[in-house]
Design a protein that fits this description.
111 residues, alpha+beta, Trna Endonuclease, Chain: A, domain 1, two-stranded antiparallel ribbon, 8 strands, 19% helix
């Protein structure tokens, strides 16, 4: 939320609504709305888990969906790494798939 404010956007926490993203953030100048899924991971972690709902949401709105990876170092969050259209190369999850683990370094390189 703090980073979005620094970018000049107006964020709203929608994490309790289970949309497939945690924050809806609007650019007051263009009225563009970004859908941001936030994943906190301990610094040095190699994987991140994403849900089927998050993947489908990202594939439905690829140009406006952001996966924000926030590394935590000694209890303090670092600057988020933003990945737009993070699931472009992921296949659609199967019907019974609840979640998958993605390799963080490969995910960052591919977006």
């Amino acid at each position: 939320m703090k980073y979005e404010i620094e970018l000049g956007r107006v964020p709203e926490d929608v994490s309790k609504k289970n949309y497939g993203w945690d924050i809806e953030s609007t650019d007051p100048n263009t009225k563009d709305r970004w859908l941001i899924e936030v994943k906190g991971r301990q610094k040095g972690a190699t994987t991140v888990t994403v849900s089927r709902n998050e993947i489908l949401s990202g594939k439905n709105r690829p140009e406006r969906y952001i996966l924000a990876l926030v590394e935590v170092d000694k209890g303090s969050p670092l600057k988020p790494i933003y990945m737009v259209n993070p699931f472009e190369k992921e296949s659609m999850p199967g019907f019974a798939t609840e979640s998958i683990n993605l390799n963080i370094s490969k995910l960052i390189r591919s977006t």
